[in-house]
Amino acid sequence: MIKRVLAHSCIVLSLIFMVLWVLDRVNAAMHFLSRDVFKIPFLIFLILVLILAVILVVEDARQTCGDAQETKRK
To answer: For residue 1, what are the CA distances in angstroms to 6, 7, 11, 52, 74?
Structure first.
């Protein structure tokens, strides 16, 4: 249960921060992310977290589906 909540939270938070990153690129006057040194590593981190979270969600869904099918066979 915790793995699911954390994975979905990572997806939501990474998407929020990606939107903030795009808004900062489009309208620099907003200063969401003001330091240039921070932007690229942060974007890389967000993409990696999003990929990891999607992998965990898919893995969990496959495992849950497999368990349900195994229960039906018994």
So the answer is: 9, 10, 16, 17, 25
Q: At what angle do helices 2-26 and 36-73 cross, to 10 degrees?
A: 150
Three-state secondary structure call for residue 11: helix
CB-based contacts of 46: which residues, under 8 Å, 6+ apart?
14, 17, 18, 21
pLDDT tens series, the chain, 74 aa: 777 788 888 888 888 888 888 988 898 887 777 777 777 878 888 898 999 899 889 998 998 887 777 666 66
pTM, full prediction: 0.65
Domain positions in the chain: 2-73
Amino acid at 7: A
